[in-house]
Design a protein that fits this description.
single chain; 298 residues; alpha/beta; Alpha-Beta Plaits; Rossmann fold; 2 domains; 7-stranded mixed β-sheet; 4-stranded antiparallel β-sheet; 11 helices; 30% strand
C-alpha cells in the first residue's frame, strides 16, 4: 500500500469504560461514513477503558458526531469528545494496519499485511487496508459470515445473490466456498467498483458479477433468479421495505441471511418477511448486532 499523505486530518477522540458501548460507537460510525470520509480505530487502554479515534478527511459536523455517539454510549460520553486537527501523516496506514485478521467460521477477513496469518484450512478474504472497516471487523458482517458457513455445511445453492454488497465480502466468501457464479448488487456506484476490484483481488472476479441497482429493479435479478440463497447485510428499514420484492425472486425453500439491524429491530424485520412466506430458522447476535437466517416456505 502506498503512502496516503494529506495536508491535515481532523480528529475526534473519546474514551469509554464499556467495551460493548465502544463497539457500538465504532459500528455506528462505520455505518454512517464511507471509507473515504473517515478512518476509525479503537484500542483497549489501561484499566479496561477503550480509546476511540476517528480521523476525518474534512472537518466533521461536531454536533452530528456527538448525537451519533450519544445514541451508542450516552450523552456524558458524547459531550466529552475532543476535536482537534492532526498534521500531515499516512493516517490510513497508521490506524488500519493495526487491524488483526477476523475469523468467522471457515472464513478469515484480513488485510494485505496479514496474508501469512490465514490458516491453511481457512478461506482468506483480503480487503485493502483503506477499505477494511465495515467488512469482517463489523458485527453484522461477522454474523452473516458465520451463518453462511453453517448454511454451506449442509446446503449447496446454485443461484446466489449478495444484495447491498458494499465491499463485496459476502459475495467473495460465497464464491470462494461454492466456486459458482453469483450476482452482487449495490445502490452506490463506488461500492460496486470496490466490490468488483476486491473480487478480482481475491481471485473470484470471473465468478462475481457486480451491478448497480436500487432494490430489485434491475433486469439482471429476473434473469439470474429465482435465487436459492440471498445475503442482505443492509439496514432494518430497507430490509422491511424490500421483503415483498425479495420474496418474488426466491426459489422454493430458498434461504435468506439478513443483517444490519440492532436486536430491538429484529422482530419487525422477521414479521415483515414472515408475512411474505419466510420463517425464521436462526437468530444470532454478534457484538450487539442481529443476523437472521430465514427460509422461504411458499
Amino acid at each position: 500500500m502506498t503512502a496516503t499523505l494529506t495536508p491535515a486530518t481532523h480528529r475526534a477522540s473519546l474514551a469509554i469504560g464499556s467495551e460493548r458501548n465502544a463497539r457500538r460507537v465504532v459500528d455506528l460510525m462505520t455505518e454512517s461514513f464511507f471509507e473515504a470520509q473517515a478512518v476509525i480505530a479503537a484500542f483497549e487502554g489501561p484499566g479496561g477503558r477503550w480509546h476511540i479515534t476517528v480521523h476525518f478527511a474534512e472537518p466533521p459536523d461536531q454536533t452530528s458526531i456527538r448525537e451519533l455517539v450519544g445514541i451508542a454510549a450516552g450523552d456524558e460520553v458524547a459531550q466529552a469528545i475532543a476535536f482537534d486537527t492532526v498534521e500531515a501523516r499516512d493516517w490510513v496506514r497508521t490506524t488500519l494496519d493495526q487491524l488483526v485478521p477476523v475469523r468467522a467460521g471457515r472464513f478469515t477477513v484480513h488485510g494485505r499485511h496479514d496474508r501469512a496469518k490465514v490458516a491453511p484450512n481457512q478461506l482468506g478474504i483480503e480487503i485493502e487496508a483503506a477499505l477494511a472497516f465495515g467488512t469482517g471487523h463489523h458485527g453484522t458482517t461477522r454474523g452473516c459470515l458465520e451463518l453462511l458457513d453453517d448454511v454451506l455445511k449442509a446446503y449447496r445453492p446454485r443461484r446466489v445473490l449478495d444484495l447491498g454488497t458494499g465491499t463485496g465480502v459476502l459475495a467473495i466468501a460465497a464464491a470462494k466456498a461454492l466456486r459458482i457464479g453469483l450476482l452482487a448488487s449495490d445502490i452506490d456506484p463506488l461500492s460496486v467498483r470496490v466490490a468488483r476490484d476486491n473480487a478480482r483481488l481475491n481471485g473470484v472476479g470471473d465468478l462475481v458479477t457486480t451491478i448497480r441497482a436500487t432494490g430489485f429493479s434491475a433486469p439482471q435479478f429476473a434473469r439470474r433468479g429465482p435465487f436459492d440463497l440471498v445475503l442482505a447485510n443492509i439496514l432494518a428499514n430497507p430490509l422491511r421495505q424490500m421483503a415483498t420484492p425479495m420474496a418474488k425472486h426466491l426459489a422454493p425453500s430458498a434461504l435468506v441471511i439478513l443483517s444490519g439491524l440492532l436486536p430491538p429491530q429484529a422482530q419487525s424485520v422477521i414479521a415483515a418477511h414472515r408475512s411474505r412466506g419466510l420463517v425464521l430458522e436462526r437468530h444470532i447476535q454478534v457484538e450487539g448486532w442481529s443476523s437472521l437466517l430465514m427460509r422461504h416456505v411458499d
